[in-house]
Structure formats: C-alpha cells, structure tokens
Amino acid sequence: MNVMRERRLRGAIPTQREVARILGVKESAVSKWERGVSKPRADKLPMLAKLYGCTIEELLASESEAQTQ
Question: How many folded domains does the chain comprise?
C-alpha cells in the first residue's frame, strides 16, 4: 500500500479533500497519488512530506520499495 494512503487510513493525516485544499490541487489528483497512478509535482513534495509525516523519498518510493522498508 502507498505510504500516503496508509498514513491517511491510520488517521495520521487529513482527508483527501483537505490535502487537496491545502495544496491547491483537485481531490482526484490526491487520489491518483495515493493509488500510485501518478506522482505529485516536485513543488508539492515538501508540503506533502510534512502533511504525511514522512520523507520525500518515502513519498516517491514504489510500492515494492515501500513494502521492504
């Protein structure tokens, strides 16, 4: 499971709607990031890492890499 989705489901971060509002993106973009369909733009990574309580590297790791960490 994607680190973003995992942390959100554990209640560690806001809803997709809140994340989208904070970052100024569509909710569908946050959904795609969580599902691994797409990656966020580089300018969004520092705020995403802060919101999700992880590193930028963790955000960008593929699911197979994330599972081994």
Answer: 1
Q: What's the CA gap between 50 and 55, in Å, rounded?
A: 8
CATH number at residue 37: 1.10.260.40
User: What's the rounded Cα separation, in Å, for the pair 19 and 12?
Assistant: 12
pTM for the whole thing? 0.76
Q: Residue 15: give the domain boundaries.
A: 3-68
CA distance 62 to 1: 9
Residue type, 4: M
CA dist 52 and 4 (Å) reads 6
Per-residue pLDDT of the chain in tens (69 residues, 90 and over written 9): 477 888 777 776 778 899 999 999 999 999 998 888 988 999 999 999 888 888 999 888 855 444 445
